[in-house]
Amino acid sequence: MAIISRPLLLSVLLLGGTEVLGHRHGTSSVPLHGTLAGPSIAINSVPPTVRENWVRRANAALAEAGEPCMFAAFASAIVNHTASTAGELVCTGINSTRQKGDPTLHGEIAAIQNCTAILTDPTGPYNLTGSQALAAFADLTLYTNAESCPMCASAIRWAGFREYIYGTSIETLIEQGWGQIRIPSIDIVRESADLSNPVRLLGGVLSTETDPLFSWQFDSSAPCPQGCVRPAEGGSCVAPSL
Ligand SMILES: *[C@@H]1O[C@H](CO)[C@@H](O)[C@H](O)[C@H]1NC(C)=O
Ligand SMILES: *[C@@H]1O[C@H](CO)[C@@H](O)[C@H](O)[C@H]1NC(C)=O
Ligand SMILES: *[C@@H]1O[C@H](CO)[C@@H](O)[C@H](O)[C@H]1NC(C)=O
Ligand SMILES: *[C@@H]1O[C@H](CO)[C@@H](O)[C@H](O)[C@H]1NC(C)=O
Questions:
Q1: Of the residues 28, 104, 121, 224, which has the maximum number of CB atoms within 10 A of its CB?
Q2: 191-222 pLDDT, tens per residue?
Q3: Nearest to residue 111, comparing CAs of 61, 42, 45?
Q4: Dihedral angle at the C-alpha atoms of 73, 32, 37, 108, nearest 10 degrees?
Q5: Pocket test for ligand 3, best of 70, 97, 164, 170 (most atoms within 8 A of CB)
Q6: Which residue out of 106, 149, 176, 218 has the highest number of ligand 3 atoms within 8 Å of its CB and is therefore the one to mutate?
Q7: pLDDT for the residue numbered 5
Q8: Which of 92, 106, 126 to mutate to test the pocket of ligand 2 (most atoms within 8 A of CB)?
């Protein structure tokens, strides 16, 4: 499998122009997620516990949308950490492909579109023009509970986010049976150094809480995520009926 045999692994990638800094770990025999799990590195002076809380906030967008046990439980939160280390929420987004019939509406794309709508809303708190909204992404951090597919990782790079933080790795998604395009985000970041805004990438954040969201769908013996149950007759995990 292409991803597992990849010899390089980064718990953090700091990318500026063509210069790639960071911590390279691992060998071809070390699974990526093992190396990435629980990164304890503070990038841009934001402590790991703050990062974890924002991944939790992304997860919470599922329940907020009335879908706490959603099958495709992919959720994102876009946060401004330049105003404060604690961060301010700008918007959230969850996978809406089925709901909207739009195959590109992964959680990250849904969040980017939601933020654009919020930033440019003439009656909203920002009231930005299109070009001001485009520029605003350079201050922002995208949190996602699972590593972005290459479409979304590319969108993150085109948006020019300052930071991109994910929970569950693509490798873990593949192990759990999710069909994936097997290009890790680290490759998209590395290959997109021509774009003007650098991004800092941190993976494996809060994966102890995000992995269970993706581990039950293709394994009927796997436990449901917290707060969800499998009906006696089997099938998908659902919210317990009240
Ligand atoms: C993010 O915070 C910075 C610093 O306070 C501010 O200038 C910028 O307008 C904020 N952006 C958004 C989208 O909230
Ligand atoms: C947009 O983000 C806001 C703020 O987090 C959230 O309340 C709302 O549900 C989101 N809308 C969509 C369509 O995801
Ligand atoms: C979104 O949902 C679709 C269909 O349920 C699924 O195939 C896809 O992997 C999901 N991905 C993301 C990142 O939201
Ligand atoms: C939003 O900004 C435009 C100028 O870009 C201005 O004309 C309009 O009054 C603003 N809307 C509100 C509600 O302040």
A1: 224
A2: 999 998 999 999 999 999 999 999 999 999 99
A3: 61
A4: -30
A5: 97
A6: 106
A7: 35
A8: 92
- Token pair belonging to 110: 């849904």
Ligand 4 atom 11 nearest Cα: 122
Identity of residue 59: N
Give 15-37 pLDDT, tens digit per residue: 432 223 233 333 333 334 333 33
Question: Is the minimum distance from the CB of 225 to ligand 2 under 6 angstroms?
Answer: no
Q: Is 105 in the pocket of ligand 2 (CB under 6 A)?
A: no
The pLDDT tens digits for 154-171 are 999 999 999 999 999 999
Best CA proximity match to 170, nearest among 138, 142, 144, 192: 144
Q: Give the residue from 202, 204, 221, 223 showing the smallest Cα distance to 212.
A: 223
Q: Considering only the C-alpha atoms of the chain, give the largest distance between any 2 of them, rounded to a whole number of Å.
A: 55
> Mean pLDDT over residues 143-147, rounded?
98
- In order of their start, the domains of the chain are 48-214 (3.40.140.10)
**Residues framing ligand 3 (Cβ under 6 A):** 72, 74, 95, 97-98, 106-107, 149
pLDDT recorded at residue 242: 60
| Cβ 209 vs Cβ 49: under 8 Å | no
